[in-house]
Specification:
The structure is a homodimer. With about 210 residues, the first copy, chain A, is α+β, with helices and mostly antiparallel strands. Helices cover about 50% and strands about 5% of the residues of chain A. Chain A folds into 2 domains: about 1-75, Glutaredoxin; about 85-209, Glutathione S-transferase Yfyf (Class Pi), Chain A, domain 2 (Up-down Bundle), CATH 1.20.1050.10. In chain A, about 45% of the residues are buried.
Chain lengths: ~210, ~210
Amino acid sequence: MKLYDYEQAPNPRRVRMFMAEKGIEMPVEQVDLGTRAQLNDYFVAINPFVAVPALETDDGEILTESTAICHYLEGLQPEPNLLGTTPLEKGQIMMWDRRIELEFMAGIAEAFRNSNPNFVSRSVIGTQNFEQIPDLVDRGIARAHAGFEMLNDRLGEAEYIAGNRFTIADITAFIACGFARWIRLGPADYHANTQRWLDTISARPSASA
Amino acid sequence: MKLYDYEQAPNPRRVRMFMAEKGIEMPVEQVDLGTRAQLNDYFVAINPFVAVPALETDDGEILTESTAICHYLEGLQPEPNLLGTTPLEKGQIMMWDRRIELEFMAGIAEAFRNSNPNFVSRSVIGTQNFEQIPDLVDRGIARAHAGFEMLNDRLGEAEYIAGNRFTIADITAFIACGFARWIRLGPADYHANTQRWLDTISARPSASA
């Protein structure tokens, strides 16, 4: 297998952290989003949707979309389980993972992509060019703030995002917290639950993946 | 089990069509998004993220997020399989389902929620109110048009969205095509692959779910 990666970007980091938790190693090729290398013919032939991560299987199949890649890897190497064992647990973990994506990570991305000078005309991932929309910066920041509240509330109910153990939802939330620093946001001083959880997750070897 | 539903909305329809394919039946309660009933205390207590669908399990657990609910139901009743059997097929189906969501359905939703008078101050699903952003209407329409091209291209490569059989990715794409009519968009006359596929999917009993 081989991973097409960009070290700084949040989505490939989700897959790298997932791999580290499972002890999966594979060759990694950097696709330099900083020079828009994902739009070069070479990479478009690999992933026409021009995004990383992309995983090449041993049979030469290409898988894209972070969550899909993680489901593939969990199927290949079920332990340690990160996606649930019973139908209910699988559903709950996926529910929390998507809530973190939609209620937290999406707002951060919205604020970031519509304000950063490197993303002029690239406000949406994909082959089409779209200009930045200034109104989305404020909206994204407001959504990100709400996401930090949601995260702290949830971590007051449960030790980890999806319940009483570490799962893919913690990976997504942890990487989203790192991504939030790109727009200079972080948990508030009173987000004690989030601080406790961040300390726990940061101490895992996979946190540096 | 019990499904909290809103008959007209696209996401609950994804779950109903998934259930119909599996022959799963359960009591359904309508949450009238037309009168913003999802924001009433009664429903906020059920789903604090104020969206349908939500599924109540026999043990009283609440699951939300269409895809998470479908994964739960697939676990309870594996046949007919709609989410893949091998790790690779699971990954491919999830990849295509997410591509349809992100490259097609998201654009339609963007155009719809930012233009429809019933969604003034409700341009984003969730507890927070956000004003409509007129620039997102044009951007959403452009993304939806690109989504129709993508769909037709894909259906030139494969009989169904994720490959040679019907899966959840076809459900998502079929419901997205119905949703597109809300912004008066549909496949172009030259989208012969999409027309062929739409005829096939429309003939399934689950299409009226």
